């Protein structure tokens, strides 16, 4: 029924949204010059059969449009983040694997010498799809700390520019050895871990608002997520631009905690040595946290598997689970 919130109405709205996105003729016309020599057809409204107008045939419409996107021997490149460096392979072997076509538009190529190599995708493109644009390659940065600019196709250049500011690279998962390879990265890692814990502490302090504003000088992911960076962050680390800024924020934050009664009240006492020295999670040089209860101890005092708080919790749990011997 019109105006209802039924599943059918929702499906119809989704269908219209998908169709509007797919049938963008303006972008298709811009590509027509590059695709004129290939057999790929442009997706125009007139090419959609009448029987597919109903949202009930959405699956058929998707299948139909997918067939128009490429051919049996070629499909356009997909937006993807590549984390490996392509091995050196002879040009003729790569072009043969491409069916002697440009990866970008599917145009058949008679001579491989006219093709241009894209270091990001590891494929060859025609001069319409490759304008000798240059970019740093994520895999080369993360695996070799190599910031040189390499030739990439127009598609790759647009993709890399679009993700440049996005924090999508977890160094700990991709290549933890980078912290050993790069002293700059290791220093940033230490300060980042301290700021990560400090920010959590400052958010609980009603006097910490002014200090928290200083954190706005850097992207929020740098102080809220560990090991997470964008390409822009990595370039700034290499240039020495990010570390001084992080250190300034760290100095202001620790100064606040040291002089704030509310923050000091949230410190930990080492239960092993019972020293009056207050411990905080951000003091990574001397503080060790129990992985279970997150309590802080001196590194020199901590004994694995012997956390006093965890032992108390376990004792209370055992006591509560033991049936009472006193008759009701």
Quick synopsis:
It comes from Accipiter nisus (Eurasian sparrowhawk). By secondary structure, this protein is mainly alpha-helical.
Account of the protein in words:
- The protein is mostly helical and 328 residues long.
- The protein folds into 4 domains: 7-68, no CATH class; 91-163, Zinc/RING finger domain, C3HC4 (zinc finger) (Herpes Virus-1); 176-264, no CATH class; 268-318.
- 44% of the residues lie in helices and 9% in strands.
- It is built from 15 helices and 10 strands.
- The chain has helices spanning 7-22, 25-35, 58-68, 91-97, 138-144, 154-163, 171-174, 178-181, 183-202, 209-214, 221-224, 231-238, 242-259, 261-264, 308-321; strands at 116-118, 123-125, 133-136, 149-152, 169-170, 228-229, 268-269, 278-279, 287-289, 296-298.
- The strands form 5 sheets. It has a two-stranded antiparallel ribbon. Strands 3-4 form a two-stranded antiparallel ribbon.
- The protein is elongated, with a radius of gyration of 29 Å.
- Mean pLDDT is 81; it is low at 24-48 and 62-68.
- Residues 116-317 form the Rubicon Homology domain.
- Keywords: Autophagy.
- It holds the Pfam family RUBC_PIKBD.
- InterPro entries: Autophagy_HostDef_Reg, RH_dom, RUBC_PIKBD.
- GO terms for molecular function: phosphatidylinositol phosphate binding.
